[in-house]
Amino acid sequence: xxxxxxxxxxxxxxxxxxxxxxxxxxxxxxxxxxxxxxxxxxxxxxxxxxxxxxxxxxxxxxxxxxxxxxxxxxxxxxxxxxxxxxxxxxxxxxxxxxxxxxxxxxxxxxxxxxxxxxxxxxxxxxxxxxxxxxxxxxxxxxxxxxxxxxxxxxxxxxxxxxxxxxxxxxxxxxxxxxxxxxxxxxxxxxxxxxxxxxxxxxxxxxxxxxxxxxxxxxxxxxxxxxxxxxxxxxxxxxxxxxxxxxxxxxxxxxxxxxxxxxxxxxxxxxxxxxxxxxxxxxxxxxxxxxxxxxxxxxxxxxxxxxxxxxxxxxxxxxxxxxxxxxxxxxxxxxxxxxxxxxxxxxxxxxxxxxxxxxxxxxxxx
Length: 365
What we know:
- The chain has helices at 16-24, 44-63, 72-83, 99-111, 126-132, 180-190, 247-256, 265-269, 273-282, 288-315, 319-331, 341-361, and strands spanning 65-66, 94-97, 117-120, 138-141, 144-145, 148-149, 161-166, 196-200, 224-229, 241-244, 261-262.
- By secondary structure, it is of the alpha/beta class.
- Helix 5 (126-132) links the parallel strand 3 (117-120) and strand 4 (138-141).
- 33% of the residues are buried.
- The model is unreliable at 273-286 and 317-346 (pLDDT under 50).
C-alpha cells in the first residue's frame, strides 16, 4: 500500500543534529559539534534520591496523568528562576515542555502562518529552523556586528515580520553573546510593534567568569516568549523544558500540547535536586576552567600544526603563482608581498570557502 502523505510532511527530513548524535556514540569521540553536556556532570545521586523520595511520598500522583501545563511546583520554580533574571513571570504564564524543542514546535504552531516572516540571526540554531519549517514561514536574515544581531526592523526585507528569534546568550552555533547595549536596542526597537520576540536561552547558566547580561525579555514584558531547558544544566535525558509568555499564548500552546501530560517522576522530582546538583557541580574535582584551558591549548596546538603544514606547501608554489596570490591578497585588503603572500592568500581563500560551507550547511531558510 502507498500512503498519501500530507504536504507538511515534505518538511520532515532527517535531522543533521541526529546524525551528529550518532557520531558521538563512537568510542573515544569527543564531539564539539553538538550541545552535549559532559556526562560526568550529571547529578546522578541527587536525581536518584529525589526520585526515590517522590515514589515514597507521592507515587500515585507522580505516575498518574497530570495537567497539560505541567505540575504546579515546577511551574512555580521556573517563574521564580525567571524573576531572578528580571523577567516578570508568574506560574500561570509557564508551560512545561518535553525539552525546548517541543517548545519551538508549539511556538510555530501558535504564531506562524504560511508566508509569515520570521527574523533570525545568521547562522542560527538549526533545530529552530527545522521546528518552524513545517508551518511555512519565510526566514529573513539579520545583519550583525560584534555586539550581536542588529535590530534593522525598518529594512524592507523585514517588513511585516511576525516574529524575531534570538539566542542572546552563547548563540548556537557561533557562541556569541549579545551585549547589554544591543539588548536594550532590541527592546526599544520592538516595543510597540506587532512583532513577537522569541528569546531562546538554553546556555545562559553555563558561564565561567560572569553571568551574561539581563534578557531582552526583561525589558519587553507582554511582548516576548522565553524558552528554557534543563537539558544543559541537569540532563538531556529528562526531556524537560519550558516556555514563558503571555497567559493567552501559553493557553493556546497548552491546548496544542499533549492533552494529558504524565506528571512523571522527573517533573515531580525536579525542584528537589536543583540546589543539590548545583553544589555537587561546584565541588567537582576537575573545575570547568581546567577543561576549557586544556581544550584551548589542544586546539591552538593542532591548528598551529595545520597552518604550518599549509604554509610549507604554499611556499613551494611557483613564482608566478605567488605573484597571482599576492594580487588576490591586495584585493581582499591583506597587503602582503614577497614569499609570504601565498600563505596569506591561501588563508583568505580558506576563510571564504569555510564561510561558504557554513552558509550551505546552516542556511537561513
